[in-house]
Design a protein that fits this description.
alpha+beta, 3 domains, Aldehyde Oxidoreductase, domain 3, 11 helices, Molybdopterin biosynthesis moea protein, domain 2, elongated, magnesium, transferase, Molybdenum Cofactor Biosythetic Enzyme, Chain A
């Protein structure tokens, strides 16, 4: 790469994108890499502070920022991710190729960004994503980078870092408990909320049962739902530690393996998760009726993406597990659960 005065650059080829900034109005590319400079370009180049331009003179063992970014992109992108067709100012953007759950290999992302001169930026791991949504980007810092740096990255990173996991529709049985509901004293507020959240991910309620606070009857209906082929069971109501709240014990005694009862998430502390083989059984606390977002919003997309959550997965939500109940909810693009 050779630097020459703008006035002497007519007929030469730009080796990099030239950015123009108009404060408060515009920031973007004024001239594209590969542009052949014309006489009429000189005035504009000078007006944006370019007294000199750089002409690309390839040398063995060196890579232009665009070529390096393409190799990094090929290294980090996995299933369910599209890359921008055009490289702008040495940067490649990544987009979701489908609706799903964003998965980031945080350990390898840290390793890659620790190498120096290479950056990859992403949204948070486990963020529910819509097709076409921007989820990350990469670029190298210098205009020209030693190819050995890229080779080092390719040797360190053996698996993709960014992917979008597919969420598949599920048949869900909802079991709502409470004497006040069973005897018609109040209207069930749980079901419309659960249905709405399931519908966001293409799933639906297969069956809905309202039961009194009767451990044996709850246990029986859970077993029945299992036998009839439900993909997931969500139990609502009766999840606190009051003596007449029997839902947790009913779940524990149905033959399922308990993962956790109690989560470091607010709202959602009294959340329960168990598995009957690979089928999740959830105990959802009453906060789901009146809070916009709760622990259910954090675990549901992961379960619908067929992740089998562990105690460690739930415990990890303590960092970021406080919902601020903002007047305008921007979930999932907020701090909750991150």
């Amino acid at each position: 790469m050779k630097m020459i005065k703008v006035e002497d650059a007519i007929g030469t080829m730009l080796s990099h994108d030239v950015t123009q900034i108009i404060p408060g109005k515009f920031k973007g590319r004024a001239f594209k890499k590969g542009h052949i400079i014309r006489a009429e370009d000189i005035e504009k180049l000078l007006s944006i502070g370019k007294d000199n331009v750089y002409v690309w003179e390839p040398k063995e063992g060196e890579l232009h920022e665009n070529d390096a970014a393409k190799r990094i992109s090929d290294l980090v992108v996995g299933e369910g991710v599209d890359t921008a067709e055009e490289i702008k100012e040495g940067k490649i953007d990544f987009f979701a190729a489908r609706d799903g759950l964003l998965k980031i290999d945080k350990e390898n992302l840290f390793k890659l960004n620790s190498l120096g001169e290479i950056i990859v930026s992403t949204l948070h791991n486990n963020t529910p994503i819509k097709k076409g949504e921007k989820i990350g980007a990469t670029r190298v810092i210098p205009l020209i980078i030693d190819e050995n740096k890229i080779i080092e990255a390719e040797e360190v990173i053996k698996n993709s870092i960014i992917s979008v996991k597919e969420i598949t529709p599920k048949k869900v049985v909802v079991i709502t408990t409470g004497n006040e509901l069973y005897y018609g004293r109040i209207k069930d507020a749980f079901l419309p909320i659960i249905e709405k959240k399931l519908n966001e991910y293409g799933s639906s309620v297969l069956n809905k049962i309202i039961l009194p606070d009767d451990k044996d009857r709850i246990n029986l209906e859970i077993k029945k739902a299992i036998e009839e082929g439900a993909d997931m069971i969500i139990c609502t109501g009766g999840m606190s530690v009051d003596p007449d709240d029997v839902t947790p014990n009913a779940i524990k005694e149905c033959g399922a393996k308990l993962v956790v009862y109690g989560s470091p998430v607010l709202p959602g502390a009294m959340f329960l998760l168990a598995y009957h083989e690979d089928m999740p059984i959830l105990g959802v606390p009453s906060c789901a009726m009146y809070s916009k977002r709760t622990v259910l919003d954090l675990v549901l997309p992961r379960l619908l993406a067929d992740e089998k959550l562990t105690l460690n997965d739930i415990v990890a939500y303590g960092h970021g597990g406080l919902c601020l109940d903002c007047n305008i909810c921007n979930f999932p693009h907020c701090s909750f659960g991150k």
